[in-house]
Amino acid sequence: MTDLEAELEEALKELEDLEGMDGWEGLGTGAPLNVGDCWGRATTVDHDPRSCDEPHVFEVVGVHEGFEAPEGEGLAGMQAEQEARDAICEGLFAEYFGVSYNDQPTPMILVTPEPVEMGSDRIVCSAYTTRSEEHTAPFSIG
């Protein structure tokens, strides 16, 4: 095991110790984000839904309820969970835009399973171009 892997394993153990703690409510998004909502600004942390006509970085392309993380522990488990979340978001991206995530023309629109709702089995999948580029219209492909 490399030093980096050992550090990641230790950090994961510390995070697992936080799972049973109370007081995380209210630290996620304000109002729930839904398909078609836009959110986020380039210079501040803002998870509140907004009109896509207002400046935003992200657009919600899908919401998946009932996510169950694949079995696994440590770094391998974290990687498997991230890959499963990414696959769900790529599928929802294709439904939303009508084109496969990997078959879209350039410039590409990226997709990410965020914002993460702590302690939730709900995955919010958001499209973006860069994390510092704001838009004032919904995303379109083509």
UniProtKB/TrEMBL annotation:
<dbReference type="Pfam" id="PF13845">
    <property type="entry name" value="Septum_form"/>
</dbReference>
<feature type="domain" description="Septum formation-related">
    <location>
        <begin position="36"/>
        <end position="125"/>
    </location>
</feature>
<dbReference type="InterPro" id="IPR026004">
    <property type="entry name" value="Septum_form"/>
</dbReference>
<protein>
    <recommendedName>
        <fullName>Septum formation-related domain-containing protein</fullName>
    </recommendedName>
</protein>
